[in-house]
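Q: Got a minute? One more chain.
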Amino acid sequence: MARTVKGRRRMGWIGWAALCFVLLGLVGYAAYSHAMRNNAVAVLDGADKLLNGGDGAIQLVAAERYGKNPAQKLEMFVPQGAKGALPIVVFVHGGSWASGDPHDYRFIARTLCAQGYALVLAGYRLYPQAKFPGMLEDGAAALRWVQDNAARYGGDPARMALMGHSAGAYNVVMLTLDPQWLKGVGLDTQAIRGTVSLAGPFDFLPLDSPATINSFGGAPDLSRTQPVNFARKDAPPLLLVTGDADTRVKPRNSQALAQRLTEAGAPNQPVLLEGVSHEGIIMMFARPFSRDTRALDAVLPFLAKVTAPSVSVQAPGR
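A: Always. Here it is, folded:
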């Protein structure tokens, strides 16, 4: 029978332990919710690192600036113990051209380095520091760094592919299709062996969201901001992956670009993933969500084909 003090029940040690457990759970949940609201990608990366047992399988070989602005930075990773010149994947993050940090996407390095790639995470200036075409000028400058420096860190610049999510997918596809950006830094358009888009915006006129208005509203000719207007026959192969549950960057963007590329005779491979959202498509590259392998099942064969050590690069089958 429980003892009482002045008519109230005294809580035993089991009750106090239960209360502390509940309070700790509430504090943990609040901290998790705050982190998810403020930097969900960093939380995703932390979970992936924990479930991978740390970063032991990848080696950071370069953390450099390719420009004077703090956002003009990149990190390069190779598999631990790698030998020889590896094909390179340059990944550009999303964030509506207004947020994001390449450092938070190390889960992409853990995933792709395990497949034998050198991985470069490239940042770029964000709104309001930069608007169109600042993100493309920065992307081209980062690729110039890769071409000039990656070989001494274990990468093969002659076998370079690009990959991006959301706003980052826009950046890499524009760098692939509009020759002026690479030419501006002295690179040939064929320096890109192939490009992977994850949920990219390619046909978004009229501007109807704060993100597009902020970053593109000042462009003198809006038609020159749209990737669908740069489809060309001699473009490198493009893999356009999107989810049919994406309400932020609707699948029609990838579908419209695929149609334009096909009409131009350019190699492309559209992939529509059932039930996958805008955020879900990038989560599929990190544990525990990578158990759904559909995105990787599309990306890995494409990368293997376009970065194969041969001069001739054939378009992947549609």
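A: The longest helix spans residues 13-51.
Q: Perfect, thanks.
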